[in-house]
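Loading example: each entry is read as four labelled lines plus one structure line.
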Amino acid sequence: MTDKINRRGEIIRVASQLFIKNGYESTSVRDIAAGVGCTEAALYYHFKSGKRAILKEVVEVLVPMLFNVIVECRDAASLDALVAQYSRRLLDVMSDQAEVLRWAVSEFPNFGEEERAFFYEKQSMIFSHFVEMIQRYVPDRAEAQQTVWIIMCISIGYIQMFYSFNVKSTPYGQQVHLGALLARALSLPPP
Amino acid sequence: MTDKINRRGEIIRVASQLFIKNGYESTSVRDIAAGVGCTEAALYYHFKSGKRAILKEVVEVLVPMLFNVIVECRDAASLDALVAQYSRRLLDVMSDQAEVLRWAVSEFPNFGEEERAFFYEKQSMIFSHFVEMIQRYVPDRAEAQQTVWIIMCISIGYIQMFYSFNVKSTPYGQQVHLGALLARALSLPPP
DNA sequence: GTCTATAGCTTGATAGAC
DNA sequence: GTCTATCAAGCTATAGAC
């Protein structure tokens, strides 16, 4: 009810940023406390099991961000339109997306059973949802699944390549366009 | 000339493994010394600038591994054959490749200017080389470049998805085949 | 080249007052 | 709920003997 009602949420928010920026191991409980503007001891009041408990809740905030772009592309008129919309939407949130993806890859080995289970559950939900969306245009289920894998692999690879590694196009090559890559890979007319 | 001639190389070898397994930050100089079988002080004899200097040389060993798979697929008779050969070869070394890729993604933000420059130089060399290989079958340069980007993005995405995250295929779906994904994305006959 | 010893710092976590 | 104070354990790095 007071305006400090959300110390806990604030801790998660600050911790997310720090974990993404510096990694879990390199972020100290002190750093988090400083960011929030309280002492370390106060953190241990809110999260009895300490740093690990904070990670767990951060995962529950960040992992959904990884997959949610997809859901927002319902009601496209065709596969072309869906792919165009998807890649536009993905590029909009790319910087965030790239950070979260890089973080997820880095931190995944440190995840415990619970965090992994949560990740797989979200991934699986989104995959099914995506396949259903694609089946409107590609009725054959196996083919729709393959389409989804291609979109997902290209998206992940593209993000890693051009955002995490910040690869510039080579001297000869103009900027690489995600939409064009996806269109070519799915044999759609170029955007 | 003695059999301890390569203490230095041994340090790099052990450090590479530990950095990949636990990350740079979480690997202590003590861990490396223990793995090598000497004291920390001895490490500081071989690497005057300490842990950081070790990272620099580890990068020079690991980054080339990331890209070298590609080079080994010369002299294929067709694009189909090249892609088939490439994905077979990549799957052979996939575990290593996945580990090194995950490590590179994780550690990239900690790289200094020199390490980044080294990374980009290798990446650029391999990209050019790959484009030339593809141009035997796809003479148009822009199209050959796009082909390479598609192969690279799908490979990276596939590795991250199925090795770094260890995503199992969903209930409905059979195992996802890298070669099939690449063939479909490049409009080649399925393998 | 390799060792022992240690300086000087940061870490995650807790006890106990308010 | 939040604080001060403190802890043991860990860290990188160096000095100096052999």
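Chain A touches chain B at residues 23, 25-26, 102, 104-106, 108-109, 119-120, 123-124, 127-128, 141-142, 145-146, 149-150, 152-158, 160-161, 164-165, 167-168, 170, 172-173, 176, 180-181, 184-187 (CB under 8 Å).
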